[in-house]
Amino acid sequence: MKVTYYGHSCFSVFTNGKHLLFDPFITPNELAKEVDVDAIKADYIFISHAHYDHILDVERIAKNTGAKVLGNFEIYNWLLKQGIENAHPINPGGKFDFDFGTVKCVIAQHPSSFMDGSYGGIACGFVLTTPEGNFYYSGDTALTLDMQIILKFTKLDFAVFPIGDGLTMGIEEAVEASKLVGVNKILGVHYDTFGFIVMDHQKAFDTFKNANLELYLPKINTTIDL
């Protein structure tokens, strides 16, 4: 599968002929200033939680592309109020089949609120199964033993974990999360965007390598194969 990184926690996966975009936060990110937001392709957009650094560009991209946008029920209602009619609710425990494959919504340990402070529903992660491979995006989360349940239902090809620490898991916790879900290929996200989540890249690479795991930290606006 081809994975494009747009900075912070925003990335897309091209699989089974569809572009799947996650947590679009690009335009305010100084590190992603070279990204042309209006050129991003999306057939589906997945929102892990309501914090501004995960939803700020969703309205613009959804209206540009006509993508179906999925999030918890509170996010779903918020999307409708923004004029995004092609919205679809999904809560932890639920799953739906689409033309690219299947998405299962799972729990994440993290707060969730909209920019005005209103309740944003429960934070989520997503497990996606497709004919070309399976992957898990944890969303913003702490390390939790709930992750081990994923391995009971889905054999994963890779996982996407936050590794910037402070507000989410850090490097060491992401290594343990990788073991819980049974992956050895990990895309790291949610680092460097703000001063309090700046990360030592070499330490991250070394820590994962010492655990016999392969960490990917692609440059923003580049595409890799996973």
From TrEMBL:
UniProt GO MF annotations: hydrolase activity
Keyword set, alphabetical order: Hydrolase
Domain Metallo-beta-lactamase: 7-190
Keyword Hydrolase annotated: yes
Keyword Disulfide bond found: no
Protein known as: Metal-dependent hydrolase
